[in-house]
Amino acid sequence: MQELKTKVVEYSLSTVKALALEHFLITAEVKSLPGYLDLNFLLTDTQGKRFILKIANADEPLAELDMQNAVMNYLNGQDLQPYVLPEVIENLAGNELTPLQDVYGRPRPMRLLSYVPGVFYCDHKALSSHHHSQLGTLLGRLDLSLQGFSHSAASRNFDWDLKHANAVIESKLVLIIDQSQRSQVLKILSDFEQQVIPFMAELPQGVIHNDVNDYNLLLTSASLDAEVVGLIDFGDMVHSHQINELAIACAYAILGADSPMAIIEAITLAYHQQRPLNGAELWVLLPLIAARLAVSVCNSCEAILAEPDNEYLLVSAKPAWEAISSLLKLDTKSVGFGLQRLCLTANVGASLSGSLG
User: Fold this and answer.
1) What are phi and psi of 252, to 5 degrees?
2) Cα(51)–Cα(111) distance, integer angstroms
3) Which of 228, 249, 261, 284 could crosslink 134 through cysteines, CB 3.0-4.6 Å?
């Protein structure tokens, strides 16, 4: 935590204000925003227009920043209406990346993005099957569009890539002190090895967002009839199995839910209607959802060992453990067959509707 505070001091609000004026000719009020790797700032200019200014972590490869910019440019050229994504704004020199250095001489490239308005998915208090279906539709359309995108930096070895979930879980199992929780994660690992790995060759691959969580999704408002409208933060992109996109989104969507399968089915069916899923993808979906949660709690245990007095880490891990307990009450094979039937029935229904029309 001390390292993060030091970084913030390096780029004070007054410094960021001066950088915005120097490189983008924007006179703005500046507010610091939370961020995992980047330093993030909200700029509001004299006309009330807002922007997001990002100063990269010193360890973030330039190629990965270029990939993030490239995918936003690409997707904004696709027909993804009504969904809104950030747009990359060039500096006064016509460049998307502005080179900066911190006080240690390390490169910290700066970027400016358009602001995507909305209410975070996590802040909406009355999410319904309507919103879950909308999420699935967004995911399906996103992955369909991303089939035409490629970038050399996407082929990276990344711990958050579900392709490698078994290796990540195995390496961090020892960090789980509670024996009952460790047993739960071992069951997830076993299901992954038995029900996912043998079918990997049948899973379509492509570049995916890889982090469609409830802090990266935006709704039009906090009202009951709000619509899913935006998606941000492409920092975890990777070339992987496309079904992982759906699994990750489902893992976050079921946190705190009483009926996780109803949510998984709603998101999956809507996704399938945009980018049809094959039988193998549906077969591996539930163990992939569980594996994402297992990776998350393993990383949480690692963070808690590093900061044992940080109560926030304990609280934030609790919903993931609760979701794991709920999923382990389900039979993964039965769920796999059930999802296959669900999507097959939808296909038959669509065919009949088309022939009658």
Assistant:
1) -75, -35
2) 10
3) 228
